[in-house]
Design a protein that fits this description.
The chain is an alpha+beta fold. It has ten helices and nine strands. The chain has two domains: about 70 residues, Arc Repressor Mutant, subunit A; about 180 residues, GAF domain (Beta-Lactamase).
Length: about 270
């Protein structure tokens, strides 16, 4: 950003100098008319020394967001393409899942969530609330959470190859959100084994104290689990006796989304 541009910004903006904010500014430089940038251009854009600009560029390159181009400049890297792919798939997924989610919310009277795995965390793609009641949850659309809490997260991991599960678990801090949160790798793997056996996952008061979660897998045409459909209900309303009936409804709805999803390229 040039000195003139910075002069026109509020004081609060000029005071923010974090690497993350600068990195975002660099990424925003790219467009159809500017497919690559040089360190000198970045330095002028940010109004910083060339060495400082290059340090930001190097951080983005190391993370895969940029890569060095043949012309000597830097272009968008493979991580950007990966995120774009995730965004496209999430958009299609939400579009095809939303009618089913609304139907499930209406039939059960409970909140329905759609989640998928991004990196080492579970990402909430969409939510549908029942007309009868609206649940207060820690997990909202656009939020990510560690994978050691919640039925949706277990479904997302349960059918992955063991090597991938180990890689993800290696990045989990195993934070305890409640007394019921799984806080060990062995405990999480045991839960994943149970999820595969049942064909769905159940969690009780692991993230929010009064919430029972029941989740089932959504699969693509290659039979890979690409998302989880889950119901979040109040533990005071849902006893263990109620779980099989809710699970049957969730599994059926997830299978319906799977059928719809297989009609398109995911």
């Amino acid at each position: 950003m040039t000195s003139e541009r910075r002069a026109n910004q509020p004081n609060g903006y000029r005071d923010r100098n974090s690497t993350a904010e600068r990195a975002l500014e660099i990424l925003m430089m790219f467009g159809e008319q500017r497919p690559s940038v040089t360190a000198s251009e970045v330095a002028g854009y940010l109004d910083v020394a060339r060495s400082t600009a290059y340090r930001y560029i190097q951080s983005l390159t190391n993370a895969g967001f940029l890569e060095e181009g043949a012309s000597g400049g830097f272009q968008l890297g493979p991580r950007i393409l990966e995120l774009a792919h995730i965004a496209r798939r999430s958009g299609s997924l939400a579009e095809y899942a939303r009618p089913v989610m609304r139907q499930l919310a209406s039939a059960t009277g409970e909140t329905v969530l759609l989640t998928r795995l991004t990196g080492h965390t579970a990402f909430c793609v969409d939510r549908a609330d029942a007309v009868q009641r609206v649940m207060r949850l820690s997990y909202e659309p656009g939020q990510t959470l560690p994978v050691n809490a919640g039925a949706g997260a277990y479904v997302l991991l349960a059918w992955l190859p063991e090597t991938e599960v180990d890689q993800i678990i290696a990045h989990v801090a195993f934070e305890a959100f409640t007394a019921n949160t799984i806080t060990t790798a062995s405990g999480l793997k045991k839960k994943l084994k149970e999820t595969r056996r049942l064909g769905f996952a159940v969690s009780r008061a692991e993230l929010d104290l009064d919430v029972v979660g029941i989740a089932a897998p959504i699969r693509d045409s290659a039979d890979r689990v690409v998302a989880a459909l889950s119901v979040a209900a109040s533990a005071s309303r849902v006893s263990d006796r109620d779980v099989p009936g809710l699970a049957k409804a969730v599994v059926g709805s997830a299978e319906l989304v799977t059928a719809r999803l297989r009609l398109i390229e995911v």
